[in-house]
Amino acid sequence: MPHRSSYAEGTPSWVDLSTPDPEASKAFYAGLFGWSWEDQHQEGQYIYSIASLDGAQVAGLGPQPEEMTRQGMPPLWNTYLAADSCDGCTQRAVDAGGKTIVEPMDVMDAGRMAFIADTQGAVFGLWEAGTHRGAEKVTEPGAFTWAELYVPDTEAAARFYEATVGLGAEAADMGEMPYTTWKVGDAVVGGTMPPPMPGIPNHWHVYFGASDTAGLVARARELGATVLVEPMDTPVGAMATIQDPQGGAFSVIQLNEWPTG
């Protein structure tokens, strides 16, 4: 369903980028996906920018904390899981063995958020919607399309995320690659697998839709990006992995079948 106004608990509902150079990052993603940006200010200070595609909010961007930049940490696309109660899900995450990175906090009237590290160190956000419900357009070219968790022990991950936000796990046929899908009720909302290559840290990985994966990869190169995984066919569509000029990694996918409605 490309247009969304609400999300059931456990569903990836929003993604944003933490980057040391917000203006350069905004220019890159505007050139790649055609996003327009609106800066949010508080008492005259820039705090956050929201990307829109055809008038619908699709992603966010904020400055990377200076301490993280000094430590050499790369920019990171964050995935937020919808929470009926941010505080309740945070407590369940801790009870299941996770660690709180950012305690639940209000983001003005937009909602309430927290950051959690799961039992294998992968960090994700929780988002309890206020006036900001999440991405208004998903699963189409230029919009957030898929969230994937990379951890070595997918069975342990399934236990943790079921306890935290009620995600169900189900094995999926992806050829030779072991793969598990995340489900909210009967709806498939994401996936998990061991890191696909040595050296990849445990993390939640973001995919954006592409109408032409090869063409989008070529445009990303023209804009100064590095291609980490060249376009390749998968059972669900052609995908590639890109590192933006500031170092943030994400994937793009041209689905064989796009949802409607």
Q: pLDDT average, as an integer?
A: 93
Tell me the span between the first and last alpha carbons.
5 Å
Which secondary-structure class do the elements indicate? Answer: alpha+beta
- Give a short account of the largest sheet: 8 strands, mixed
Q: Which CATH class of the largest domain?
A: Alpha Beta
Q: How many distinct domains?
A: 2
What would the CATH topology of the largest domain be? 2,3-Dihydroxybiphenyl 1,2-Dioxygenase, domain 1
Helix tally equals: 5
Q: Write down the overall geometry.
A: globular
Q: Tally of extended strands?
A: 16
Strand order of the largest sheet: 2-3-4-1-5-8-7-6
Tell me the Rg in angstroms: 17 Å
- Spans of at least 5 consecutive residues whose pLDDT stays below 50 are none
Beta-strand level of the residues, as a percent range? over 45%
* SSE series: EHEEEHEHEEEEHEEEEHEEE
In helices, the fraction of residues equals 10-25%
* Second-tier CATH architecture of the largest domain: Roll
CATH superfamily of the largest domain: 2,3-Dihydroxybiphenyl 1,2-Dioxygenase, domain 1
